[in-house]
């Protein structure tokens, strides 16, 4: 098995992140640093990342209703609360599938399955990420229309998004918008809405693919069922097949 795939299967990180570790010389096999992605690992080999041995473990998948004020990392050198602090009884080495900002709440999946992570976050699979945004300003079709064509953020155009205006409060000068995107760029929703003149003051992800927060309070979590995992894989495969047929 190739080294990057072995690392992903061990639940340490995604395959793409594993490739970064390898290129940076952070991976050893039987005590020897490996930097070639084509390196193969066989049964009995000792694989370490940053001096820590890794082993295969049961694949697990959790859904978390992430609260605001919690960061989407496995550790923090500043001592801030992380999403793993909310799942203290999970023995496997799980990590977030993508990220939510510190002040963004909602759907976050955590797993130790690197291949699953790659399928969920790769832009080509266009997994729906649905957000509920409260913004300062009055939303209307005219100012939101550019989102459906893509807007320029960080010198790169976004993919077309879908929106629904749920509420407009002319007295308080604010609106509530549902926005569906298919990417996962840094602060993307906030920057997209800012690009059309609307500043986000509260943001939550309410759906990821086929998964929503039904039955989960803030900070609560549960394991995903085999059916739910299959539905997520099917959603990714559907988009891929749809593109290939066009």
From TrEMBL:
PROSITE patterns for this protein: PSI_RSU (PS01149), S4 (PS50889)
Keywords: Isomerase, RNA-binding
One Gene Ontology term of the molecular function aspect: rRNA pseudouridine synthase activity
Pfam families tied to this protein: PseudoU_synth_2, S4
GO process terms (BP): enzyme-directed rRNA pseudouridine synthesis
GO cellular component, one term: cytosol
EC number(s) reported in the record: 5.4.99.-
InterPro entries on file: PsdUridine_s_RsuA/RluB/E/F_cat, PsdUridine_synth_cat_dom_sf, PsdUridine_synth_RsuA/RluA, PsdUridine_synth_RsuA/RluB/E/F, PsdUridine_synth_RsuA/RluB_CS, RsuA_PseudoU_synthase, S4_RNA-bd, S4_RNA-bd_sf
The RNA-binding S4 domain, residue ranges: 1-64
Source organism superkingdom: Bacteria
Segments passing through the bilayer: none
Protein family according to the UniProt entry: Belongs to the pseudouridine synthase RsuA family.
Protein name: Pseudouridine synthase
Organism for this UniProt entry: Streptococcus macacae NCTC 11558
